[in-house]
Design goal:
By secondary structure, this protein is of the alpha+beta class. Helices cover about 45% and strands about 20% of the residues. It is built from 30 helices and 60 strands. The chain has a five-stranded antiparallel beta sheet with strand order 1-55-54-53-52, with no helix packed on it. A five-stranded mixed beta sheet has the order 19-20-21-22-26, with no helix packed on it. Strands 2-58-57-56 form a four-stranded antiparallel beta sheet, with no helix packed on it. Strand 49 and strand 50 form a beta hairpin. The longest helix has about 70 residues. The chain starts with a helix and ends with a helix. The N terminus and C terminus are likely disordered.
């Protein structure tokens, strides 16, 4: 099945063509012929009365060839939509006619009568943009498609007047006339974005260039300067100027720079008279552009935006500027204030208020406006992006009418469309929250109903549900389904007596919310008893149909629902087919409401269902098609080969070729991931259905069925279609929607490209076998107008379509006149209202409303919650009663006597209950702690912050640590808070070179060099390749084709290998150092040496300034603070260790006391004195207070508050401190009393009683152990105290050393501060010089980068010139090779090749290079001079090929001449460019030299200032503390009192310098050795280079000799390797074989003729033999007679005989000379053949060589005799 369908696909694809393309090509051919005819008459002006025929231009429907489908199958009846989201989709032709684009149609709308006229797109690809002529005499339609045209129509005749071609590749985005309408500007969309200026009356391009690489929204001419244009679009605005240069007019563009303003999309702008431009923004403010920069941003007062959302200026007149915005407001601004607006500082805005404003309406989004064509009119027509066209009066007077909404349409994609089953009514809905009903027979809109949410699905109830045909089911994006009832309110007048307006109204009958996401599909069961709704939340809900719709239940499906379809009446089972977007298909049985049991949920889990998941088979189909096609090709080739082998009788060749055949690899089976989306589908038979897929699987209709195995998971299953049907020309254009006519004889398809396609079907054709011929027409927009909704009217006379472009079209299936006659008596009937029509049902307006399932679940949960609360309340009541009883029992138990009172344990009935309760309590406590963990951490952090804030830090409070056994003590430093370092502004040195520009320039040069390198590759192979002379092609065999393919692959591999070698050599040469290259290590060593030597020879000192001194000052302060903080931390750590030690000592003392209590008094050693913490050691203890202390303070404060104020408060704190001290002393006394040793009772009793021996021995052992423990404790305590004192002593000494260093640092601080004050005096002078120096450095870097760039370009130009010269030489060599040897036309062809002719340069569209008239005249003179200077003074006629010369060779010579002239022109241009670059390089070098001199002068000035600063700094006094042993300045054996003449020097530095002298001496010797070795290595390298050059030269000579030996001349080996197979040679070989076969047959015929001639020759020879015999006898007789006569005639006979011999010898000599000449010619021909074969490597004759004639035999006497006879 797959193979058959695959074959049909290929046959159908090859046999069909689009009639639409044929029409367009026919029109283009006529147009191009017309243009050529006009251009041939020396730019003849197009006649003003020339028109095109619209019937020949407009696109037509495509109909399958040889089908009987009529061309006028559909006739456009009316357009109900408006693509309001398209930019500038509203233009005005006169005071009553508006035009706008609707898909592939241009609609001309009469404002007064609301009648529509239509023009179809001529390309069939859609319309991109429209505009009207300023005089309203013409309007322009710019199309879409491949190479689209711009068509200018005359109005009101609507005849095509001009056609403009070649302005863009795919689509026009905007077109606009200039102020007087003489020029037209167009802008293309992606990919070219071409800006083109047209002389549209002559259909000529004036100027053209690429606008930008982004989407362009608008282009316009300046009304004040005809040569200025402006374009704007995505994130840009660009200003253009038509400049007249010396090469002609050009378009020069200047991109707008936003600067500090955020880039924005610019939808609209207005050109001002002085050249400025005012544009809008995305955020609602206005930007005033001066040049290409923003002068000021304009907003309203207090920073409010001019508009809410995007703003567009659109008009400037009478000193007022008008703007529109997406907020639906028109505002008028004072132009003078805007024009003179200026900002005081960068980034600020100019604030102003509008003079007037007009609020058009609520929920209005104005995107474009057009003005009425009436003179002095203030009426404007506005395009509303929310689906309306407004009429505005912008006169802003008291009598101005309010805005009038002329037309209202849907906004955005059409989400739902359906038609009435009883009348010509149509209903639609979109996401603009509206539902509209249309009378498509009367071409009018009946009514509109708006809601709070957007509509997503719509279905018209069938007559079996609603007999009147007025019930609509509409689904919305929030999951709500609303039943709307349509009725005629005019008929209510008979019931209510009221006269309502309008012909129809929609009444809300019932709303319900079955889903939580958008409703995507609604469908009635075939009997009208059940309604099914599908949603994007992957559910399908069922309802019973009646007066009220009641829910049955819902099911879950594997993906979002795409469509729902109930089985038709022809099926036995009533099933629902659910199509999911993910490719799943589910079939469920219709639920029976009577059998449904009430449950807790609406979910129908037991509803029977079958699932299908689509698996892609498209790649397999394509694979089978390719296999079949390749098989057919192979069979055809095999037949041809068999016939050829049969003729040539070469069976072995067939076997060899069969072995060489390689098995072709089949394409892999591709499965798209993610799967292709499902577009639509429908039932064919019970259990069978058709699917249309999108994405990769488009192009086919797949016939599927449910498998028998339904146990597999629907998400994991993979089901393949059992059949498929190819859809012609739908590879990238899937079918989005499908519908049938009522009799199912027409299949209507809505395509993804916006076109409608109709297939005639045979009755009862469920397998669609008759789906072959079709009728198609592009209707909606081809890019985004996907046709998702298509319906037939109830009588099949109308077809309704709706697409994603917002357009709605109605078509008639009969011609319009016939339809009007048949439907004159019928009008769209609107249902009558019900008699019981009451108040409208309350709508579901809450966006958070519960769905039916959630509401049911919530109701059940609420009921359960109420039941739980009741049970809990009852249990709590019982528990409270039990608690009361238990409390009473406890009270009674407490009143009982103690001996009979029950214990708490006895009151517990079961211990396990108590443990369980305790466990639960602990668990809850843990949970509470976890819950309060964050709060606890927060409170602790807050407490710590308060303590740190109110308590003095360790730096503020002095902490003193005192030794225990000695009097040593150490205190912390008093550290005030270090000043904020941010106050000291740190500037980096301004003397650094700004390397950013240099780096950027280097990067730019690198990129440019790479680009130039890529572009400078010259295809030398094209030049060197011998031109192929076009002759009749010979069909080659498979073996020859394979040989050519392998040769091409081999040549390609050789080319890649050579290219790789070239890249490697280029990399090696790039890494090769230059001649003046220096090793970076040597450069660094020289720099370091210069710097080190400079300290002593007085080179430039490092410049210092006040900022550097300030940084040094701050660094020193930070270092001092850090050192002091470090010592403070150590002291505090020592204090903390003492706290631990004191605590440990008290613990040991208690242990010692217990031990000594058990010892005798005489054995007790005195305990050590226990230390205590002094108040100065723990100053923070003063701030610690307990809760009791705080309570005591509060009570004291309350007692004395009445008598004391501030002073009392102070005394209160003192009193509180005294009380705290007294309490502390009392506690210490109590503790001392408790620690006094007391004799134990046991010891007293033991002293009075006698002990036994065992007890005495045990007592001694105990005494010994206690003594050892006592000694150990005392030793440990003494050791710990000594260790602490040692640590304190060490820290005290380190602190003293630090004190000494800090004093020196303080002195250094004073010196630095004095230096900083001194340097501040030079700051102003030095700052000015630094600014000048930085300017010079920046300028120098810029000039240097430009110079380097210029030099690089110059070097590239030189390389290009050299390559062009090489190409010219190669071209000349190719010409010589094409002539061959001994060509008699060589001189003529050489003159033709070298002839100089005048060539006319074609004007480029980009306008980059054009020649003026003066240049042309001078060039003409030059060409005339060259022409006259040809050799011989005679002109060479190169228009006619001379007789005898090969035409192919002559044409080849002309082509080579053209290429030579191209090369000469390129060479001339490159030389001019190189000369210009040379001049530019020289000027830049001069500038660089002058800038360097200026920089050197500034640096010298800075050095002078620096030396002056250093001199001033040197004069400052510096304090240096010295000891006596450091002073070595002695006069007369004593130290003088005046040490001003002494030199203070660091001894370590002096020792370092002495050691450095020795190191330098050793380094000097080492450098000498290195220099000597380097010279030796340099000499060796020079010698090696010379020997290598000689070797290279020798190898080149050997290579040249080998090439001459093998090829006879020097050849390019790389070009020889890259030569691919010569197809011409293979064709000649094939031709030779064919001719040899023909010649062989002819030779056989000639052999037979020769045999016959030989037989005749034998007969003649026999006859001649007889004649010879008779001649012999006669000769003998003659001899006898001669002997007789010899004596008598001796003298006379001798003379005659000599004359005869002389004549005979002369004839023989002449014959031999002729033979030598013929043999010499044959030898020369053989030499040429050998030479050609040696060059080509072949073994066959050259193509132009003829066979050598056979050598003629020498004449014999017998031949002479025969001839004589």
């Amino acid at each position: 099945m797959l193979g058959e369908n695959g074959a049909s696909v290929s046959e159908q694809t090859e046999s069909t063509r689009t009639s639409l393309q044929e029409n367009i090509e026919e029109c283009d051919t006529k147009h191009s012929a017309m243009q050529q005819e006009a251009g041939s008459q020396s730019k003849k002006q197009l006649p003003a009365d020339m028109y095109y025929k619209y019937e020949e231009l407009h696109s037509r429907p495509y109909i399958t060839p040889d089908s009987e489908i009529p061309e006028n199958l559909l006739h456009l009846s009316h357009s109900f939509g408006y693509d309001c989201g398209r930019r500038a989709n509203l233009k005005l032709l006169d005071d009553r006619t508006l035009i706008f684009i609707a898909g592939n149609m241009l609609v001309l709308l009469d404002v007064n009568t609301k009648e529509q006229r239509y023009l179809r797109s001529c390309s069939g690809g859609g319309i991109g943009a429209i505009t009207a002529h300023p005089g309203k005499e013409y309007f322009v339609v710019a199309e879409k498609g491949k190479q689209p045209n711009i068509i200018v129509y005359e109005y009101p005749s609507l005849r095509p007047y001009r056609i403009l071609k070649g302005g863009t590749e795919r689509e026009y985005s905007f077109v606009e006339f200039n102020h007087n309408g003489s020029m037209l500007a167009s802008v293309g969309s992606a990919p070219d974005y071409t800006l083109t200026l047209w002389d549209w009356r002559q259909e000529e391009v004036m100027l053209s260039c690429k606008a930008i690489s982004q989407e362009v929204y608008r282009v316009s001419f300046s009304p004040y300067n005809p040569g200025m244009l402006t374009t704007s679009g995505f994130g840009h605005i660009k200003f253009w100027k038509m400049a007249n240069t010396f090469t002609g007019p050009k378009l020069q563009g200047l991109i707008g720079h936003f600067g500090k303003t955020v880039p924005t999309d610019i939808e609209g702008y207005v050109e001002l008279p002085d050249g400025k431009v005012l544009s809008g923004t995305d955020w609602g403010n206005l930007l005033l552009w001066d040049g290409n920069t923003i002068k000021v941003e304009i907003c309203r007062n207090d920073g409010r935006t001019c508009h809410a959302g995007t703003v567009q200026p659109f008009s400037l007149e009478d000193g007022q500027l008008m703007t529109i915005g997406f907020d639906g407001v028109v505002r008028v601004w004072d132009f003078e204030r805007i024009n003179t607006a200026d900002s005081n500082s960068d980034g600020s805005r100019f604030e102003m208020e509008p003079n007037n404003e007009l609020v058009v309406g609520r929920n209005v989004c104005l995107s474009s406006v057009v003005r009425s064509s009436l003179p002095h009119s203030f009426v404007w027509f506005a395009q509303d992006s929310n689906g309306a066209i407004w009429k505005l009066d912008l006169s802003f007077t008291n009598t101005s009418p309010d805005p009038e909404c002329l037309f209202s349409f849907h906004a955005g994609m059409i989400q739902g469309l359906d038609v009435s089953k009883k009348s010509h009514l149509m209903a639609t809905t979109t996401l603009d929250c509206s539902v509209k009903v249309f009378d498509f027979l009367g071409k009018r809109e009946l009514t509109t109903r708006r809601f709070n949410q957007g509509g997503t699905a719509l279905c018209w109830a069938p007559p079996v549900v609603n007999q009147s045909g007025g019930l609509l089911v509409t689904g919305f994006e929030n999951g709500v389904v609303r039943l709307l009832e349509l009725y005629n309110p005019q008929r209510l007048q008979t019931i209510t007596g009221q006269s309502p307006e309008g012909d129809a109204e929609l009444r809300l009958r019932q709303p319900f919310k079955p889903h939580d996401a958008a409703v995507t599909a609604v469908a009635y069961e075939r009997n009208g008893e059940i309604l099914a709704t599908g949603s994007a939340d992957c559910t399908v809900f069922f309802f019973t149909v009646g007066e009220n719709y009641n829910p049955i239940g819902f099911i879950h499906v594997p993906g979002p629902v795409q469509a729902l379809e109930w089985s038709p009446h022809s099926h036995s089972d009533n099933n629902l087919l659910i199509l999911c977007q993910s490719g799943h298909v589910v079939e469920v049985h219709s639920p029976d409401p009577a059998t449904q049991k009430p449950t807790n949920t609406f979910h129908l889990s037991e509803l029977p269902r079958r699932s299908f998941k689509f698996k892609s088979i498209k790649s397999r189909i394509k694979r089978e098609e390719d296999t079949a096609r390749n098989k057919a090709i192979k069979e055809k080739k095999k037949k041809v080969k068999e016939e050829w082998l049969k003729d040539t009788k070469q069976p072995d060749a067939e076997q060899e070729e069969e072995k060489e055949e390689e098995k072709e690899e089949l394409p892999i089976i591709y499965i798209p991931d993610p799967p292709s989306p499902l577009c639509c589908g429908f039932y064919s038979q019970p259990g069978h259905f058709w699917l249309s897929m999108g994405g990769f699987d488009s192009g086919f209709l797949y016939h599927c069925k449910f498998s028998e195995n339904q146990d597999e998971d629907p998400e994991q299953r993979q089901d393949e279609p059992f059949s498929f049907l190819p859809v012609h020309n739908a590879e990238d254009d899937p079918i989005c929607s499908i519908t049938f006519s009522s009799n199912r004889q027409l299949l209507l398809c809505g395509m993804n490209s916006g076109s409608i396609r109709i297939y005639p079907l045979q009755p009862g054709d469920h397998s669609l076998t008759s789906m072959q011929a079709y009728w198609t027409l592009s209707i909606h927009d081809n890019q985004y107008g996907h046709l998702r909704h298509i319906r037939c009217s109830h009588d099949d006379l109308f077809v309704l379509t709706a697409g994603d472009d917002g357009n709605i079209f109605s078509f008639s299936l009969l011609p319009s006149e016939e339809m009007q006659q048949s439907l004159q008596r019928n009008r769209a009937k609107i249902p009558s209202p019900k008699i019981t029509l009451g108040n409208e049902t309350e709508d579901i307006e809450d966006p958070a409303a519960y769905s039916l399932e959630k509401a049911k679940q919530k109701l059940q949960n609420d009921q359960l919650q109420q039941e739980v609360e009741l049970k809990v309340s009852e249990k709590q009541k019982n528990l409270s009663e039990l608690q009361k009883k238990f409390k009473k029992v406890l009270n009674d138990n407490q009143n009982l006597p103690e001996h009979i009172r029950l214990k708490p344990e006895e009151l517990q009935l079961d211990q396990r209950c108590y443990k369980q309760a305790e466990r639960l309590k602990a668990q809850r406590v843990m949970e509470v702690r976890k819950q309060l963990a964050w709060e606890q951490e927060r409170c602790s952090i807050a407490l710590k912050k308060l303590q740190d804030w109110f308590r003095d830090s360790l730096g503020g409070k002095m902490v003193t640590v005192v030794a225990i056994q000695t009097s040593h003590r150490v205190s912390t430093y008093h550290l005030p808070e270090l000043a904020e370092l941010s106050a000291w502004v740190r500037h980096q040195s301004t003397t650094r070179e700004p390397a950013g520009d240099r780096d950027a320039a280097v990067d730019c040069r690198k990129v440019r060099a790479q680009t130039a390198k890529g572009s400078s590759k010259i295809d030398e192979e094209e030049v060197l390749r011998h031109p192929v002379i076009c002759t009749a092609k010979i069909k080659l065999g498979d073996r020859q084709e394979e040989r050519l393919r392998k040769a091409a692959e081999k040549a390609e591999q050789a080319r890649a290998k050579i290219e790789k070698k070239k890249q490697e050599w280029a990399q090696i040469y790039a890494e090769k150092p230059s001649e003046d290259y220096e090793d970076p290590k040597d450069v660094e060593a020289i720099r370091e040496a210069k710097e080190n030597i400079g300290d002593y020879i007085g080179v430039k000192h490092r410049r210092v300034n006040a900022e550097m001194k300030r940084e040094e000052l701050i660094s020193l302060e930070e270092n001092m603070h850090e050192k002091q903080s470090e010592v403070n931390r150590r002291i505090v750590a020592l204090r903390d260790s003492k706290l631990g030690l004191v605590s440990w000592l008290h613990t040991r003392a208690q242990r010692l006391q217990k031990v000594q209590q058990r010892l005798a008094v005489h054995l007790r050693r005195p305990p050590p004195i226990l230390p205590n913490m002094l108040p100065e050691e723990v100053p923070e203890e003063k701030l610690r207070c307990s809760h009791s202390t705080l309570e005591r303070y509060r009570s004291l404060r309350e007692q004395r508050f009445k008598d004391l104020e501030q002073e009392g408060a102070a005394s209160l704190l003192k009193q509180l401190e005294k009380e705290m001290e007294e309490e502390k002393k009392e506690e210490e006394q109590r503790s001392d009393e408790e620690e006094t040793p007391r004799l134990s009772v046991s010891s007293v009793t033991n002293e009075g009683s006698e002990l036994s021996e065992l007890e005495e021995e045990l007592q001694k052992e105990e005494e010994i152990r206690l003594l050892h423990e006592q000694n150990t404790l005392l030793e440990e305590m003494e050791t710990a105290v000594c260790q602490f004192d040692a640590e304190l002593l060490l820290l005290c000494r380190q602190k003293l050393h630090l004190d000494w260093r800090l004093k020196l640092a303080d002195l250094r601080l004073v010196t630095l501060f004095q230096e900083m004050l001194l340097l501040k005096q030079f700051q102003r002078r030095e700052g000015g010089l630094h600014e000048k120096l930085n300017t010079c450095i920046t300028e120098e870097n810029s000039i240097t980068s430009k110079l380097e760039e210029c030099n690089e370009q110059l070097e590239m130009k030189r390389r290009d010139i050299a390559k062009l010269q090489e190409r010219e030489k190669a071209l000349t060599a190719a010409f010589q090779a094409s002539l061959g040897e001994n060509n008699k036309y060589e001189e003529f062809l050489t003159k033709v090749f070298k002839k100089k002719i005048k060539r006319v340069k074609m004007k480029e569209q980009t306008g980059n290079e054009e020649e003026d008239s003066d240049g042309d005249s001078e060039e003409d003179d030059d060409w005339d001079d060259d022409y006259d200077s040809e050799e011989g003074g005679a002109a060479v006629n190169d228009s006619i090929c001379p007789e005898g010369c090969e035409p192919e060779l002559f044409e080849n010579t002309l082509q080579l001449r053209e290429r030579r002239l191209d090369l000469e022109e390129l060479l001339t241009e490159e030389k001019k460019s190189a000369e210009a670059l040379k001049k530019e390089s020289d000027s830049l070098a001069k500038k660089e030299k002058s800038v360097k001199s200026s920089r050197a002068a500034l640096e010298d000035d800075l050095d002078l200032i620096n030396r002056e600063k250093l001199q001033k700094i040197s004069e400052l006094d510096v304090v240096v503390p010295l000891r006596l042993h450091q002073i070595e300045y002695v006069v007369n054996g004593s130290v003088p009192s005046d040490l001003s003449e002494a030199l203070v020097l660091d001894k370590s530095e002096l020792d370092r310098l002495k050691g450095r002298i020795q190191l330098l001496q050793g380094e000097k010797l080492y450098q000498r050795d290195l220099h000597r070795q380097a010279r030796q290595q340099h000499t060796k390298l020079i010698h090696d280079r010379r020997s290598m050059a000689a070797t290279i030269q020798t190898l080149e000579q050997q290579c040249n000799e080998l090439m001459r030996t093998k090829f006879g001349r020097l050849v390019d080996l790389e070009a020889l390797q890259m030569l691919s197979g010569n197809r011409r040679l293979e064709e000649l070989k094939q031709e030779k074989l064919l001719k040899e076969a023909a010649y062989a047959k002819e030779i056989k015929q000639w052999d037979a003729k020769v045999e016959e001639a030989r037989q005749a020759l034998m007969e003649v020879t026999t006859c001649n033999t007889e004649h010879l015999r008779s001649a012999t006898s006669l000769n003998e007789q003659k001899k006898d007679l001669q002997v007789k006569l010899s004596t008598s005639q001796k003298k006379m006979g001798r003379q005659q005989f000599q004359d005869y011999r002389r004549r005979t010898d002369q004839e023989a000599i002449q014959n031999l000379q002729d033979l030598v000449i013929r043999q010499s010619h044959q030898a020369e021909a053989l030499r040429r053949e050998i030479h050609l074969l040696s060059c080509k490597g072949g073994h066959m004759l050259p193509p132009d060589h003829t066979r050598l004639p056979p050598l003629s035999p020498l004449r014999t006497h017998i031949g002479s005799i025969n001839t004589g006879k």
